[in-house]
Amino acid sequence: SGKSTLIHILLDFIRPSHGQALVLGMDCQRNGLKVRRLVGYLPQHLTLPGGITAGQLLERFAALRGGVDLTFAKDLAARFQLNLDLLCDRLSPAERRKVGLVQAFMHRPELVLLDEPSRDLDPSAQMELYRLIAEFRAEGRSVVIASQSISDMERICDRVAVFHHGRVIAVERGAQLRARAIRKIEM
Question: How many Å apart are CA 4 and CA 113, to the nearest integer?
Fold first, then answer.
């Protein structure tokens, strides 16, 4: 419905046919590289390289970003019970998602964009994700989540925007959205 597309526009991976998008006050098209450096991002489909460990990959991400506290990255990995000694090409889908989450948050960005962040995670990892998001929000940082799960949105979001055929049709609090949800019951 346009959730991932919106994130791709905000990161200047794709260009809109018309209009303008701003992130942290900057035009995404003119300042795409700077926006991508400042923003944490977890893609919906994360592809990891083979032949290196999860820890080595996080070190590479840290070197590319510069100024990343690897102690914080390792703490995040421990919180998600992620073994950094595992080879990336041997990681389960849940472990891949955890690597993606660590790299998205490890530089403590002012804005984090997460595309289906709880996908493949077990309940304890989901709860850790919710705690991490709450901590970032308490620090005054913003987290934007693209998800199809109303229960996720209701649990962790201040506001929820609903897209239908690429257009925003509602912006509401999660609980209000649940109350208006269409229910279909088969007997």
Answer: 10
pTM over 0.70: yes
DSSP one-letter string for 133-175? HHHHHHTT-EEEEE-S-HHHHHHH-S-EEEEETTEEEEEE-HH
Per-residue pLDDT of the chain (187 residues; tens, 9 = 90+): 678 888 998 998 999 888 888 999 999 999 988 998 899 999 999 999 999 999 999 999 999 888 888 999 999 999 999 999 999 999 999 999 999 999 999 999 999 999 999 999 999 999 999 999 999 999 999 999 988 877 777 777 777 777 777 777 778 776 666 666 655 556 5
Token pair in block for residue 16: 């809109």
Tell how far CA 117 is from the center of its chain.
5
Tokens 């098209």 correspond to what residue? 29
